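Protein modeling request. Please complete all fields; requests missing the sequence field cannot be processed.
Requester role: graduate student
Desired output: 3D structure, token encoding
Chains: 1
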Amino acid sequence: MNYLGDVNLRQGRHRQAAGHFEQALALNREIGNRPGEAYVLANLGLVDLRQGRYAQAVARLRHSLALLREIGDRSGEAEALNGLGEVFLAAGRPGQARRKHATALELTGQIGDKYEQARAHQGLACAYHADGKLDQARRHWQEALTLYTTLGAPEADQVRLQLATAGTATTTGGRPP
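Delivered output (177 residues):
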């Protein structure tokens, strides 16, 4: 159910994604799978983010983060921190976004999670860009691009676009203008 929700989320089908994630959440809670519950909560937070429900997204991501810390899943912790950063940026709070992404970046440097490290750099770039700090934004986008390219991740194309348009408009939510 979680993977079906993820596919729908990536395709922009938020209502369908939420339905799959809610089913996955119920199943994970029923069997006592706390890591599964934490990841599904993070995914529901991303659905809320995409639908502009920032307070609900923050609540779900914070709950996910607490569970992940409790069970010692540091990679999941970085993922939840990056999600919180994306929500804060979308809600117009780039300073809070920067703090969450910076914490995620520090954590990913310790554990070697290159994907979440790239995501943290991308989030930092967007937060700096939102504050008009273009040099810092470009530096973090370049780091994100290098990591995403090394990983063969499709997000590399998005970062290339952000770098190309960095001086022309404000970027929010980790997406190009």
